[in-house]
Amino acid sequence: MSKPQGLLARAWDSDLAYSFRTTPVAIVAALVALVIVLGAVLAPWIAPTNPYDPASLNLMDGFTPPGVENAFTGNSYLLGTDNQGRDLFSTILYGARISLFVGVMAVLFGMVLGISAGLLAGWRGGWIDTLLMRIADVQLSFPSILIALLIFGIASGLIPPDRRETMAIWVLIIAIGLSDWVQFARVVRGATMVEKNKEYVQAARVIGVHPFRILTRHILPNVMGPVLVIATISVALAIIAEATLSFLGVGVPPTQPSLGTLIRQGQQYLFSGEWWILLFPSLTLLALALSVNLLGDWLRDALNPRLK
Amino acid sequence: MIAYILRRLFQSVIVMLVVALISFALFRYVGDPIYAMVGQETSLEDREALRELLGLNDPVVVQFLRFLGNAVQGDFGISYRLQEPVMELILSRLPATLELALVSGLLAFVFGVGLGVYTALRRKGWLSNLIMSVSLIGVSLPTFLIGVLLIWVFAVELQWLPSFGRGDVVELPGGWRTGFLTESGRASLILPAVTLGLYQMTLIMRLVRAEMLEVLRTDYIKFARARGLSNRAVHFGHALKNTLVPVITITGLQLGAIIAFAIITETVFQWPGVGALFINSVRVVDVPVMAAYLMLIALIFVIINLIVDLLYFAVDPRLRVDRANARH
């Protein structure tokens, strides 16, 4: 049998793609995630209004229920409006954009940090390994949301008050990233310790390849499978962490609401009957977190050689 | 055994020292304590005098030792925001958090073990499948969203339960203010406790189910059945008893997580506990409260970890035998 040519054809023919095609849950989860990600990325182009632009808001439009014509202005909105007359659909698109940005960036940061620490600890061993793993142990015994809160608190204290608002998103990314590097470090360290004694690594050492090159070009590609799985599930966790922190009022500033901020604002209007301000951001967050989670679960099973 | 306990104690002390160092660094280097304490009109000389009086010009090691000494005596200074001694603030709010955490932990343990055993014994039943599916959604829902949804259903729509606060509290001798003794106090406790315990409940349930299924396959269960023991004796006397070791560990460790997640639940339900106090202090960078809360949480975690490790010995006799053999 001849092998199909071209990168796309080879990707289509791979075990992973086959597993994806035959797992309905993965396909549905991927579609849901794709819709939300596309909506978030393309928000400036597809959102009907710009929620950051105060000039476009009409206070008379406030509290318009979804799909109902406003009694004063005659405007109608797909998902209704909030107290200031902001179109909820647009606000959710922009909110998902911030949630996704923070989630992905935080995981990238934590991943780079964790991989570096794991490679270093696994390769060098000795005291540096002991030190890094002890830190990891202590950090693991505390819930990551607490760690993120603490780092956020410390960082806010170090930044002058007038710049806190503008830097909040980056502080948030660093706080969440620092709270989840441990998982990556542990997996990479274990794999590195196994790989470094294999013959191809020994051979590379003998011919004098620089350790950095061995680590990045030879060992790293062989530990990427589990790292990818952890990264996917971490994105879901990071999005939830961001939403939680923003809900608690210590995350992104209210002028740039993420999904968590929107839920926090929506909660205030529950008692007066404006349920849609709470419901739609919550559903978006839930769909996003659940679909990414399910994708991560599928990826873990698909990449696990023991289950084949 | 004693050597083991001593080693664990030593490790705990190291962890507490590290946390104390972080707290101290927070205290000393995040923002200027003097700036936070005095008003705008205070002259530079007065500030310098206060700095000298508080010992902020002493060597860092001396300052750290003084911080440790004060911390051991429960003195964490004065809150920048509320201008009250931090320890009093925390102590007055601790009962609310502890009562909430205790009830949540109990809920999670009782329902977690119960549902776990049920789903393991009736593996194919429709109710078991339903429970398992619902628990999957429960794991994916963020804690704060569960709280908000519960408020929506039970407080706003059905109006069965209060949505915020602790209700009426009764002061017990010793200054402990409890909500257990009044009707409004007990009603106020239900929604927060369910919110806080739900995640831990699903976790314990899944763990018990997996462990039970594992144990039910072992030879000694088959042998117990062959001896003609009743189902009840096999399931609860033999199977459940052997699943409890990991369950106790996880429950114990989760108790710490419950206290930490109480931050979120307390914010959602405006529960007047330490978690809400901490969040408010993070928002305005009230360093003394943050430092004290950090030390308190670390202490609770270290104590829980220690107790769980010691419980191992009590629950699993094999560990004791192994240790004894190793010594010979």
Give a structural overview.
The complex is a heterodimer of chains A (308) and B (328). Chain A is mainly alpha-helical. Chain A is built from 13 helices and no strands. Chain B has helices spanning 2-29, 33-37, 44-53, 60-72, 86-121, 126-140, 143-157, 183-216, 219-226, 231-268, 274-283, 287-315, 317-327; strands at 170-171, 177-178. In chain B, strand 1 and strand 2 form a beta hairpin. Chain B has a two-stranded antiparallel ribbon with strand order 1-2. Helices cover 77% and strands 1% of the residues of chain B. With 328 residues, chain B is mainly α. The model of chain B has no long low-confidence stretch (mean pLDDT 79). Chain B has 13 helices and two strands.
What are the salient characteristics of this protein?
heterodimer, A: 308 residues, mainly alpha, 70% helix, B: 328 residues, two-stranded antiparallel ribbon, 2 strands, 1% strand, globular
Please tell me what the overall shape of chain A is. globular
The radius of gyration of chain B is 24 Å
Structural class, judged by helices and strands of chain A? mainly alpha
The fraction of residues assigned to DSSP E strands of chain A is: under 5%
* Range of strand content of chain B: under 5%
Model regions low in confidence, pLDDT < 50 over at least 5 residues of chain B? none
Ends distance of chain B: 14 Å
> Mean pLDDT score of chain B, rounded?
79
How many separate helices of chain B?
Answer: 13
Query: So what's the oligomer here?
Result: heterodimer
Instruction: Give the helix/strand class of chain B.
Output: mainly alpha
Our Rg estimate of chain A from Cα atoms comes to: 23 Å
Number of separate strands of chain A = 0
Number of helices of chain A: 13
Q: Please report the total strand number of chain B as a whole number.
A: 2
Main beta-sheet strand count, sense and barrel state of chain A: none
